[in-house]
Amino acid sequence: MSQLPASEEFVALPISIPSLPSYRVQATHYLYLRRNAPRIPTADDSRSLYIANVPCDSTEPHFRALFSSLIGAGRFEGITFEQNKKTPKASHEPAQATRLAGHRKRKRDEDETKIAKDEAAAELPSTWTRQVYESGSCAVALFADEKSAEHALKAARKLKKPKNYPVWGEGVKDKVSALGSHWLKAHNKLSYPGNDIVQATMDAYFIVFNRKEKEAAQLAMRLRNEPDEDGFVTVTRGGRAAPARRNEAEEAKQKMLEREKKKKDEMADFYRFQQREKRKAEQTEMLKRFEEDKQKVRAMKEKRGKFRPET
């Protein structure tokens, strides 16, 4: 196996997993850390670490306690789990509102706050008190500065003896909800919310849905006369279809004008009499320039006078 470049090498960070009532064996788990180097760079890459093989019961308090024991408190800012990025978020967008999303005007701050509250109320409550991640998941930890991220890597390299390994979950029992039977009981209870909660959520959902549908219909009416990407306005039974986006319409208009200009240029010399007239105009222009050049040469000779060579 070829060795990875120094910038891509992982540093193993061993942690001690304490025994549980259901599994009374202490285990050692290995996290793998390296500098974060995503395909699309961001401004925080220099002060963040990519972490592979995170434990399935990971939470932000777990990692905060872990790095606080390694490099001290106040240097760890937060963590983003890759599994959370891949989870799609439910949308309340009607189909027409989704197509016309690029045309929306920016609302005032108070309107945006109200809209955010309505959309939050339209979400069903979560049925899990704590998320469990897949085995071998990854995350990106953000630190206060680049120096703190480097200290975390150095601290991980120095861990050689098992007695010095950080204990996973130490000091976070009061900050996170417990797993096991308590976790499953809570899930079963949250899976059956009361009728009043479901009714309130559905009411909020349809308020958001109807508002976005109304906005999309008003916008479609204003943009109905704009052409699509080919420069045409589609007419269907019951009215014209929803238009293209503004930028697409402008591009379509520009393309249509360019096509008309090109077609006009191609048709300029189509007939025989047009070709004859064009040749005559070129000849006339050439004779005119020739006469102007003769006058310039004559004027230069008169200005210089008669040339007399020295004897």
Structure description:
The structure is a single chain. The chain starts with 10 loop residues before the first strand and ends in a 7-residue tail after the last helix. The protein has a five-stranded antiparallel β-sheet with strand order 1-2-3-5-4. The protein has a two-stranded antiparallel ribbon with strand order 6-7. Helix 4 crosses helix 7. A hairpin with a 2-residue loop joins strand 6 and strand 7. It is an alpha+beta fold. The N terminus is likely disordered. It is elongated. It has two domains: 167 residues, no CATH class; 73 residues. This is Ribosomal RNA-processing protein 7-domain-containing protein.
Compute the average pLDDT: 79
| Rg computed from alpha carbons, rounded to a whole number of angstroms | 37 Å
Query: Beta fraction of the residues?
Result: 5-15%
- Strand order in the sheet with the most strands: 1-2-3-5-4
- Quantity of strands, as a count: 7
Question: Biggest β-sheet, characterized?
Answer: 5 strands, antiparallel
| Low-pLDDT segments, ≥5 res | 1-7, 240-244
Helix content: 40-55%
Q: Helix/strand-derived class? A: alpha+beta
Organism: Hypoxylon rubiginosum
Protein name: Ribosomal RNA-processing protein 7-domain-containing protein
